[in-house]
Amino acid sequence: MLLETLIALAFLAVAAGLTLKLHQSRLDFDRVSTDRLSDQFMIENIAEQLSVVPYSDIPDAVSRLNEESDARAEIEPFESGSAKGRHLLISIESESGPLTHHLWRFEETP
Q: Domain of life of the organism in this record (predicted)?
């Protein structure tokens, strides 16, 4: 009888330990997912702000962004047929890997 009780308690201890381990790993996953979602919202917000900046002020806005935040933005000119513009590559380093957002701004026509 005592041996059976000890085996049952050992099984219960192992099961409880496994349950706690699974719960902790789920909490860690939720935290990483929440942090990544927060970073995605931040990068989308930056892209939205840059989409309303006047075309001629884009280089200054990108310089300020690079100085004031964790996000990095690069500007590359592009040409597509008769349209010209700037391709902005906005990136941020998240815990789960890099996040990138592309924004294309066409040159303003007079």
A: Bacteria
For residue 22, name the pLDDT band (cuts at 50, 70, 90): confident
Residue 97, beta-bridge partner list: 94
Residues 42-81: tens digit of each pLDDT: 999 999 999 999 998 999 999 999 999 888 999 999 888 8
Q: How far apart are CA 87 and CA 51, in angstroms?
A: 11
The strand ranges marked E within 5-59 are: none
Model confidence, pTM: 0.70
Residue 57 CB burial class (10 angstroms; 0-12, 13-18, ≥19): exposed
Domains: count for the chain: 1
CB neighbours of residue 83 within 10 Å: 11
Residue 13 in tokens: 């201890």
Domain containing 32 equals 2-106
